[in-house]
Amino acid sequence: MRRLILATLALLLAPTLAAADMLTGTVTYLQRIMPPPGAVLEVTLQDISLADAPAKELATFTKTDLGGPPYRFAFKYDPATINPSNSYALRATITKDGALWMTTDTVYPVLTRGGGTEAEMILKMVAGMEESSAKPNSDFVNTYWKIETLGGEAIPAPQNSKREGHIILRADGNYSATVGCNMIQGGYAVDGAKVDFKPGPMTMMACVPPWDTLERTLVEVLGSAASFGISGETMELVDPAGGTLATFRAVYF
Questions:
Q1: Which residue ranges form the domains of the chain, and what is each CATH number?
Q2: What backbone phi and psi angles, to 5 degrees, belong to 238?
Q3: Nearest residue to 235 (alpha-carbon basis) of 156, 121, 135, 88
Q4: Which of 12, 17, 154, 207 would disulfide-bridge 212, Cβ 3.0–4.6 Å?
Q5: Are 245 and 237 in contact (CB under 8 A)?
Q6: pLDDT-derived band of residue 134, with 50, 70 and 90 as boundaries?
Q7: 3-state secondary structure of 31
Q8: What is the pLDDT of residue 160?
Q9: For every residue of 192-252, which 3-state class applies, written as one string?
Q10: Taking Cα atoms as reference points, which of 100, 80, 89 lies closest to residue 23?
Q11: Is 226 left (phi over 0), alpha (psi -120 to 50) or beta?
Q12: Quick one: signal sequence residues (predicted)?
């Protein structure tokens, strides 16, 4: 009977003991960018007891094929390697081809001296990596391009239930655009950076100022545009002389 009770207790305690040997948590960063292709995330359990010596690595979690953050982690450590008198912490890094891209710059204590088995970690970008992490150019086609300026003038924020000014260029060669009043439709043709907009049907609601003037300006801009340029999430339409007619910003929902 006693053996049966002990065996039952062992079975009940087994999950608890196993859970105590796991470190879990999340890793994230605040920049609105994706990690570079081939990036690798590592979360490492370190013994940081000696201030004048490198930290000793005891266990590591590795994740590849990174999408956007946050990243969850869970990995085992050997409790036999833990000394209650020592200090332990988790460190997270993202590397690309062996080069450090992001790292934690805060100590995340675990296991001893009040530390638990879970951590929520924030990465910081390594100095010099900002340029290599520049956002790729948005696609000309099938992107929601919010109108920022028309004829050098900023577009006011929409009021009441008005939609914001934008243009969407579909892959079938047609577009739809508005400054916040009528919907303008038409076609377009692209040859490299050259673009040619063709007018099409539009709704005929009466537009209050300043959207009535902005709408006429948008029609003129599309009729005058000769080329376009995209840098990151910004697009501009340019006239034949190279002057900027309008600027747009890609918006992702």
A1: 21-125 (2.60.40.2990), 143-251 (2.40.128.270)
A2: -125, 145
A3: 135
A4: 207
A5: yes
A6: low
A7: coil
A8: 65
A9: CCEEEEEEEEECCCCCCCCHHHHHHHHHHHHHHCCEEEEECCEEEEECCCCCEEEEEEEEC
A10: 89
A11: alpha
A12: 1-19
CA dist., res. 211 & res. 162, Å (int): 10
Q: What is the C-alpha separation between 153 and 239, in angstroms, rounded? A: 16
Tokens 């081809």, located at residue: 97
d(CA 34, CA 236): 24
Handedness of CA 166, 171, 175, 176 (dihedral sign): negative
Please tell me the distance from the alpha carbon of residue 75 to that of residue 239, in angstroms, as a whole number. Answer: 58
Overall average pLDDT of the 216-242 stretch: 90
How many Cβ atoms sit within 10 Å of the Cβ of residue 166?
Answer: 19
Helix (H) or strand (E) holding 184: strand 184-191
pTM to 2 decimal places: 0.50
d(CA 19, CA 9): 16
Angle at 144 between CA 138 and CA 148, to 5 degrees: 90
Quick: pLDDT tens for 49-78: 987 888 999 999 999 888 778 899 999 999
